[in-house]
Amino acid sequence: MTNDRGARIVTITDRNDAKQDTDGDLEVHHRTCPLCEATCGLEITTRGQQVVRIRGDRDNAFSQGFICPKGSSLKQLHEDPDRLRAPLIRRGNDPATATWEEVSWPEAFAEVERGLTAVLDAHGRDAVALYFGNPSAHTLAGVLYNRTIVKALGSRNLYSASTVDQMPKHVSSGLMFGNPLLIPVPDLDRTDYLLMLGANPWESNGSLCTAPDFPGRVKAIQARGGKVVVVDPRRSRTAEEADEHVAIRPGADAHLLVAMANVLVAEGLVELGALADQVVGLDDACAAVAPFTPEAVAPLCGVDADIIRRLAREVAAAPSAAIYGRIGTHTVEFGTLASWAVDLLSALTGNLDRPGGAMFPLAAHDRASRKGPGRGFALGRHHSRVKGFPEVKGEFPVAALAGEIETAGEGQVKALITVAGNPVMSTPNAGRLDAALGQLDFMVSVDIYLNETTRRANVVLPAPSPLERSEYALAFYSLAVHNFADWSPPLFEPTGPSEHDVLAKLSLIVSGLGSEADTAGIDEMMITGVLQGAMKAADSPIADRSLDELVSQLRGHSAIDKVVDAMIRTGPYGDWFGAVPDGLSIAALEANPHGIDLGPLQPRIPDALRTTSGKVELAPEPILGDLQRLEDALSRHVNGDLVLVGRRHLRSNNSWMHNVNVLVKGKERCTLQVHPDDAANLGLTDGGNAQVASRVGKVVAPVEVTDAIRPGVVSLPHGWGHDLPGAQLGVARAHAGVNSNVLTDEDQIDPLSGNAVLNGIPVTVAPA
Length: 768
Ligand SMILES: Nc1nc2c(c(=O)[nH]1)N[C@H]1C(S)=C(S)[C@@H](COP(=O)(O)OP(=O)(O)OC[C@H]3O[C@@H](n4cnc5c(=O)[nH]c(N)nc54)[C@H](O)[C@@H]3O)O[C@H]1N2
Ligand SMILES: Nc1nc2c(c(=O)[nH]1)N[C@H]1C(S)=C(S)[C@@H](COP(=O)(O)OP(=O)(O)OC[C@H]3O[C@@H](n4cnc5c(=O)[nH]c(N)nc54)[C@H](O)[C@@H]3O)O[C@H]1N2
Ligand code: SF4
Ligand SMILES: [Mo]
Description:
Largest sheet: 7 strands, mixed
Radius of gyration: 25 Å
Oligomer: single chain
Number of strands: 27
CATH class of the domain at 187-365 and 608-631: Alpha Beta
Bound molecules: ligand MGD, iron/sulfur cluster, molybdenum atom
Helix content: 25-40%
Distance between the termini: 63 Å
CATH topology of the domain at 187-365 and 608-631: Dimethylsulfoxide Reductase, domain 2
C-alpha cells in the first residue's frame, strides 16, 4: 500500500511489534541523503512525527543500500534540541553575555529590513557582503535562491566556501572547457587505472565526484584487475587500500603532475585519441612542461624521479586511466595549476571524455548541449577593494573578507548576510574574521544552529531540518559517475517558512521592496525564467506553447519543486510537457522512489564545450603565465621545517555535525598527527599536548604519534574549536577540539582562483 506521496505504508503484522506500535502505522519513505556529495538513497521509517529508523535504500538504483554513519544520524540531527526552530534576535553586543530573544517571523524580517536598509541607504550596495556556505550546495533553496539575493543586492562583495574548496577546478574548467561548471569526473565504474591525489573518499565519500559507496567502486577496480594509486602525504585509509601509495610533500602535486606530462612528451607517449581534432594549444602545452623533468621536481615533491616516470608510463599504457585530484590538490599554493595538470594528463593520454577516463556527466536538469563555440570564461572583471584580488565567478576570495570589513573607506563592508556557512570555523585566520564580524553594523544569518559564526549575527533565521524539505541533488547529479535522478518530497511539513521562502524574503528586502512584499513574485520569476529559456532554445518543442499553460502543468510540493520540474521537463531527458513521450518530470521521479538510472556517462565533446574556439584549450594564457611561479619554486631550498595539512573523519562533516552525539562520542578526533621521528626530535609524546604556531596564530592540541604521516608533516582536522563563548551547541562544546583555521594564513592564496591555501602551512611545534 502506498500513501499519496508514494511512501510505502507498512502494516504491522508481527505480534511483538504490534504490541510496541500501538500508536499507528509505520511508514517507509525514500529520499536522498543531503549531507555529503555521495547522494545515497535512504530508507526512513516513521511513525507519526517520529523517525523510527534510517537505513540505506537497498533498491536505490545508484547507491544500492550504501549508507555511512552520518546518513543514519539524520534522526538525531532532526531531533537535536539545539537545532533552531524560531527566529532569534540578539540583545547585547558581547557574545559571552548577549541574550537571544525568540521572535515571530514578521518581527524577524522587519528587524532585518531595518538593519540592512540602514546600511544600504548610508553606504551603498557594496557595503553589504554575502557569504554562502557549503550546505547551500546541498539544498535546492541554496542552489536556486541564493542567486536571487545576489541579483537583488547587486553587491560586489560576494564570498563563499568555494574559495576554501574547489575554486581552482572551476577556473581550470572555465579556461579549458569554457564553462566553470563543466567538470570532468573519473569514470570509476569503467576505469582500469585510478590515480587519486589529495582525496580520501574512505572518509569523505568523495567530492566533485558523486559516487555512493566510493570505496566499493574503488575496490571493484582492483577486483577487475585494475590498479589504484593514491598520492597523499598521509597513509590515509584510502591510501592503505590502494595498490600503491606515493607520500608526496604537501603542495607539490602540480609539480608531480606537470612532470608526468613532461615524461609523456619526452618519451613520445602523447596520444590524444578521439580528441585529436578537438583541442588547441597542444604544442604550447608540451613546450610549457619542458622545464619540469622528473629530476627537477623530485626534491620538491619528495618523490623519486623514477617513480614519477613510471607513473606517467603506467597512465599512458593503461587501457583506460582516470586521474582525480581533490582537496589536497586544490587548497594549496598551486591549486589551479594542479587542477589544469590533472585534465591535461587526461587529454594527453586520450583519457578525456572516453569511457574509463574522465567524463562529463549529463544530469536531468542540465541544459541540452548547444553546438558551436561559446563565450569562453573571463577572470578578473573587477577587483577587490583592499587587496585588489581579481573576482572569479563573481566572487572574491573569502580570505579577503576580514580585511574588507576592517578597512575604512568607500565600499567598506558594514553588513553581512550568511547562508549555511560557518566562516569563523572554516576560513583562514579564523580568529581575525571572528573579531571582524564583531565590528559589523548588522549581520543576518540563515542557519540551523546558533554557532561560532551565527552568534555574531543580529538576527538568526532558522532553516528547516533536512527532513522538512524536498530533495533533488541539483548540484551533484552534474558531477555523478553515473547519470541518475531522484526527487523526494518533504518527509515532515516545516514548522516555519521553507528556506527558499526565507531567501526570497531576503531578496525582497535587499531589493527595496520590503519585508512585507509577497515572495510569490520571486518564485514566478524563477519559474518563468527557466521556461522562457527553454521556449527560446533552438528547435524547442515548446516554442509555440503558452507560458501560462506550461506553468499550470508544473508539479511539486512547493514553488521550488516547480522550478526543478521546469528544469527537468525541459532538460536532456525531459518530457517537454508531452512532446517527448515517457520523458522525465517530477511526476515521473515521484513514481520512482528509488530514483531513475539514466545510464553510464557518454562522451560530450565537442557539444558541451563553451570555449570561444569551440575546442578544448590545453594551454590557456593565464595558466601559461602562472607556470612561471611553478618554475621559480624548483629552486626553493627544501628544508626540514614542519608543514601542516588537514584531514577528514567519516563521522564528521566540516564544522557542523559535532552536536550530534552518536557521531562525536568515542575517541577524540581532533588530534595533531606527528611522525614518530618528528615526535622524538621535538620531545612530543603520544597523548601529550603540543603547541602549534603559524604566522597568524597558535593552538594547543593533543598529540597522536603515527607513522601514517610523512616526516616533516603534521595534520589537524578542520571544523573543531567549539569553545567560543555564546554558541549554543551543548554536545559540540563538550568535544570542543581546536580550530585549525586559527593557523591557516589569509595572505596565502592561489592567485588564479583566489582559493585559500589550507594545506602546507609552515608551523612550529613544541610540547605544551
Ligand atoms: N583548514 C581547512 N579548512 C577548511 C577545509 C579544509 O579541508 N581544511 N575545507 C573547506 C571546505 S572543503 C569547505 S566546503 C568549507 C565549509 O565551510 P562552511 O560552509 O563555511 O562551513 P560548514 O562547516 O560547512 O558550515 C555549514 C553551516 O551551515 C549550517 N547548515 C547546515 N544545514 C543547513 C541548512 O539546511 N540550511 C542552512 N541555512 N544552514 C545549514 C550549519 O549549521 C553551519 O553553520 O570549509 C573549508 N575549510
Ligand atoms: N566525513 C566527512 N566527509 C566529508 C566532509 C567532512 O568534513 N567529513 N566534507 C565534505 C566536503 S565539503 C568536501 S570538499 C569533501 C572533501 O573530500 P576529499 O577531497 O576526499 O578531502 P579529505 O578527506 O580532506 O582528503 C584530502 C586528503 O588530502 C591530503 N593532503 C593534504 N595536503 C596534500 C597535498 O598537498 N597533496 C596531496 N596529494 N594530498 C594532500 C590529506 O592528507 C587528505 O588525506 O569531503 C566531503 N565529505
Ligand atoms: S555517504 Fe554521504 S550521502 Fe551517503 S549516507 Fe553518508 S553522508 Fe549521506
Ligand atoms: Mo567542501
